[in-house]
Amino acid sequence: MKAPRDVPTPLLESLKSLGLTKYEALVYIGLLRTAGATATEVHEISGVPRASVYPVLDRLVQKELVSVSHTTPKRFAAIPPDQGVENLMRRIESDAQSARTALDALYREKGPESRGDQELIWTIYGEENIKTRLAEMFKSAERSVELLATGDLLQRSVLSLLDPVPGSVPVEIVTDHWTGEQPSRFRLHLLPLAALCETPFLAKKLLPYERSGVFLVDDTRALLWMEGAEGQPSALYSESAGLVLFVRRHITTVMEWAKAAVQ
Amino acid sequence: MKAPRDVPTPLLESLKSLGLTKYEALVYIGLLRTAGATATEVHEISGVPRASVYPVLDRLVQKELVSVSHTTPKRFAAIPPDQGVENLMRRIESDAQSARTALDALYREKGPESRGDQELIWTIYGEENIKTRLAEMFKSAERSVELLATGDLLQRSVLSLLDPVPGSVPVEIVTDHWTGEQPSRFRLHLLPLAALCETPFLAKKLLPYERSGVFLVDDTRALLWMEGAEGQPSALYSESAGLVLFVRRHITTVMEWAKAAVQ
DNA sequence: TAAATGTTGTTGCTAATATAACAACAAGGT
DNA sequence: ACCTTGTTGTTATATTAGCAACAACATTTA
């Protein structure tokens, strides 16, 4: 009989978030290391109290993670991991689906009324969320789209979001680095690299972090994308006149400075 | 201010299985029905105690389900449901991935040694699990594949699994119903419908449930697929000589009976 | 201006629930 | 008689839920 050798905690955490309890995880892991064990053997291998093993095994069978033999005493075997994890995911995915539809019903109920967004500044966490918001902004553009972003951010995350901008709306892009040909769709302003290198201090000021950007749509909606070196990215979004004005000025200033430096 | 109108419990359950606590679910749902609420308003809308609202909102921000405004007092807004659920699923999916690899490492450690399968009869729950096991059986067939199944089960779940059967292995199929042309790949035995209708009692005996089947590979591995009217399907699998013999006889008997009835 | 009021955000404590762990025992097999 | 299996309670322990009290700050009112 094998020792109840200890199990890495991160694995336990992962399994918990898939809906297993600690015991269920321990028993399943234990069973993976054997082939057909009795309840008592499961107890010995997993370190789970013998009396607790029975209900736990019942639940695991219910969750389609183990199969049972028709002998006395009963013997138990684990379903292979990929199959088993998929079984768990299927349940969760179905929950996600029903939650999605139920929540969506509630969400639509309120309609897009009084966008409290008006004078507030929102912080959005997570790249996905930021990109979704940016996409909304771009799609709803009516008069202008201006953006000032590091080449990195621009190419990797933002450029693909620009497709839905209506054809009649001019798009102005200011960046420090551009690979590929000049795009006809956008008006491109390249920050003079030479000047940037001469004054790294200034470069830092204009494009402070590794990946960062400033986005302005219709002179009414602004988004500031900032990404600390380590953590997840976050962004500020606002329709506040004050912040919009500030962004407005910032972009203009940078463009003016770029023109001056080029001369 | 809206009432903390009660929330359907199944929705709460779904959200719990996505890793939210009851309070987190209530607050998120509450936020979906407004646009930018203060902590106190969240408390009123969701029915969650005001003091509890703060830690809960913190966690929701962490989980990328709500965004925060930079005002005093802070205001909170929900990320749209589909986006939010996707954010939750991303975490879970990543947990599933790491669990899969970690478990697989453990699983391989033991190798396919001492197949305890030898003399045991296993019950397998869930259609996916059964199909996986059937696929394994078919793929490893070396001498013969025989199956006796209701037409329904055959066409909907089993037929597609037969592809991996090695070309040199003969496949015998006994069923009550077959649509489409005669397959060249298999040897097909149709149970005489007329006789079946005359003796519904017998029909029930031979193919007891709605969807059921008996599968025999190489005269050494047998699987009995049974499906109660309501619950999830289950199956018996065995390499036990006794059970295999029994299945062997059963299939032969049915085929003999069919021949006799036809005359 | 100063007291009165009200709201926000915190802290700490208690209650309820789900999970974990143990003790005891009946049934059956050796 | 002994040991093992499977079952049933009962007791811890951890997580979550719910409450009360308070300091900080702003707004009103005398």
Automatic annotation (TrEMBL), chains A, B:
Coiled coil: none annotated. Gene3D superfamilies: Winged helix-like DNA-binding domain superfamily/Winged helix DNA-binding domain (1.10.10.10). It comes from the Archaea. SUPFAM superfamilies: Winged helix' DNA-binding domain. Residues 15-81 form the Transcription regulator TrmB N-terminal domain. This is TrmB family transcriptional regulator. It comes from Methanoculleus nereidis.
